[in-house]
Design brief:
Helices cover about 20% and strands about 25% of the residues. It is an alpha+beta fold. It starts with a helix and ends in a 6-residue tail after the last strand. Bound molecules: succinic acid.
């Protein structure tokens, strides 16, 4: 059935999302996001986003300003405290791997800023310079990962809380996040210490605030279960980390010039594949503020 907005807007451009895999992700072509969307178009785009969780929009031509404008349709900006934004649009960050880079951003299974009290809701990433091959991003559908568990396991996990630590040095080659970001030109002036929350405790089984679906809210920022030691937590955490990476829950996105990707951190995990050593990869990124996980 058509919504009121659709009935009033007969010229709405079609979105036509094409699934990328059985589990997650869709690709949209022939839709220019720099042209303001009417209500019906935004409503169709939002439905596609909630259904597919990862949307790859091809052939976009964004300036930092128009990229930010499109991003803000999805909510307020999530302050990212580790990098300095672009001079012309400080809320847009550059994810840069130079040809000589030794370390790579997002090269681990994670959901963006799980260690924040209110982790990122949506991340938007726009390709600026791509390696000739490689540099894909892989996503896992954490709702399917939850659904695939036995009833006994689901019962055992309900009520568990995850302790997430963004300062855990083991994930940054023994460096602090500040030290890690300070290399490779990712410097940041930490002008607002109060916004740098590094530890948060969240429910392991998270309910999506818009769809009501449950997911396994897991990623490498989970250090242990709340009220358990790291050693006590390790066997179950290892099982869950391996479980969410099962190929049946994933899709792999290959970038093209002009690609813009957006994903729902409330129910997915992702991994940036660093298989382009010696090549340049440059992206623009905006993160949208989320709410307290329930
Ligand atoms: C990220 O983890 O946010 C970056 C993903 C990517 O660069 O593909």
């Amino acid at each position: 059935m058509q919504t009121t907005a659709e009935r009033r807007e007969p010229d709405a451009r079609p979105i036509n999302p094409k699934p990328l895999a059985g589990a997650i992700g869709a690709e949209i072509r022939d839709f220019d996001c720099s042209v303001p969307m009417c209500n019906a178009e935004f409503s169709a785009m939002k439905s596609a986003f909630l259904e597919h969780k990862v949307l790859m929009l091809r052939d976009q031509e964004f300036t930092p300003a128009t990229f930010l404008k499109f991003s803000k349709l999805w909510g307020d900006i999530h302050f990212y405290p580790y990098m300095t934004g672009l001079e012309e649009e400080p809320e847009v960050f550059e994810i840069l791997a130079k040809p000589g880079a030794q370390q790579f951003f997002g090269n681990r299974w994670h959901s963006d800023q799980m260690y924040a009290a209110k982790p990122v809701k949506v991340t938007l990433l726009y390709a600026k310079d791509l390696p000739p091959v490689g540099g894909d991003t892989i996503f896992s559908n954490l709702e399917l990962a939850y659904d695939a568990l036995s009833d006994g396991m689901k019962t055992m996990l309900s009520g568990l809380r995850i302790y997430c630590d963004g300062a855990d040095k083991s994930r940054y080659g023994g460096k602090s996040r500040e030290e890690w970001y300070a290399t490779e030109g990712k410097e940041k002036t930490f002008e607002d210490e109060s916004k740098r929350s590094m530890i948060a405790v969240h429910p392991l089984v998270r309910t999506h605030p818009e769809t009501g679906r449950k997911c396994l809210f897991m990623g490498d920022q989970v250090q242990r279960f709340d009220c358990l030691t790291a050693e006590e937590s390790a066997p179950l955490l290892n099982f869950l980390m391996n479980h969410i990476q099962r190929p049946e829950f994933t899709c792999r996105v290959t970038w093209e010039p002009g690609s813009m990707l957006m994903w729902d951190n409330r129910c997915i995990c992702h991994y940036a594949v660093a298989d382009y050593v010696g090549q340049l990869r440059r992206m623009h990124r905006v993160t949208i503020a989320g709410d307290t996980p329930i």
